[in-house]
Structure formats: C-alpha cells, structure tokens
Amino acid sequence: MTTTAAPLVRDVMSRDLTVLSPDEDVMSAMRTMLAKRISGAPVVDLRGNLIGLLTQRDCLTVAYRSSYHGQLAGKVEEFMTREPETVHADMPLVEVIEHFYRSPHRRFPVVDGQRLVGQISRRDVLQAVVDLA
Predict the structure, then answer these.
(1) What is the pLDDT of residues 26-55, one digit of tens each?
(2) What is the dihedral of CA 75, 27, 64, 105, to 10 degrees?
(3) CB proximity list for 49: less than 8 A, separation 6 or greater
(4) At what angle do helices 56-68 and 26-35 cross, to 10 degrees?
(5) Which of 3, 17, 53, 128 has a CA that sits 20 to 30 A from residue 34's CA?
(6) Which of 48, 51, 105, 106 lies closest to 79 in space, CA to CA?
C-alpha cells in the first residue's frame, strides 16, 4: 500500500485477472470461468478497454436459449453485460466501501479512463481494513 493516510483503490485491487474477448465463443468463455472458479470476467477490446462483463447470470441466458429454445450459443459480446458499473483506480477506499454498501455487486472492475487496470472485491476491501487496523 502507499504511505498516504487515505488508501486508494489501486492500493488494494487485484491485478491478475482473467479477461475475455468480445469475439470469443461464449461456451469457451463459460468453460474458462468454470475452470478458474470465477463468477464473472471483464470483457476487453484489443486496446485493453473495458467494454463489458460476462457474469454467471449472463451465462444462464446462454443455457436457457440453448436448452429450451435449441439455439446455438454465440459470441461473448452477444451475452455480456454492457457498461458495467466500475470504479476508478484513484478512488479513495472509503468511497468504494460506500459503493459496495449501496450495491448488490461483490466486485467492481477498476478502470483508468476506459482501460481495465484491475478489479476490487468486497474481500479486498475487508482485508485492507484489517491490515490498516
């Protein structure tokens, strides 16, 4: 962490993320999520800009359409959540705590401009609070 009195999101966020491409086959993306035991993954363009998020809920849409309607799956971009709620890397940690308090989300993509730079979870925040105590 930095030595400032008020820690920032960038100080406690996770940087090692599994990211998906919008052109990736959604079934392949689902296999990746299951293998890595993650509930969602950011979707980025070729420049690393965040363009969406593929969640387990989005994947249930895939399962429903393929099972019930016999439709073939498609690309990640067809099912991802567009314009997900994000937090900025320079946001004070206390502000992200408020975001978590008011939101059902357990994690937020962290951006610097439009570029994905990490992810912060409730667990990351709680660990930071314990470390600071």
Answers:
(1) 999 999 999 999 989 999 999 999 999 999
(2) -80
(3) 114, 115, 116
(4) 130
(5) 128
(6) 51
Number of residues written out for the chain: 133
Tokens describing residue 58:
């989005």
Token duo for residue 119: 């992810």
Query: Which residue type sits at 77?
Result: E
Q: In what order do the strands lie in the sheet with 40-44?
A: 40-44, 50-55, 81-82
pTM of the model: 0.84
For 5, other C-beta atoms within 10 Å of its C-beta total: 5
Strand partners, 53: 42, 81
Copy the structure tokens of residue 72: 């073939």
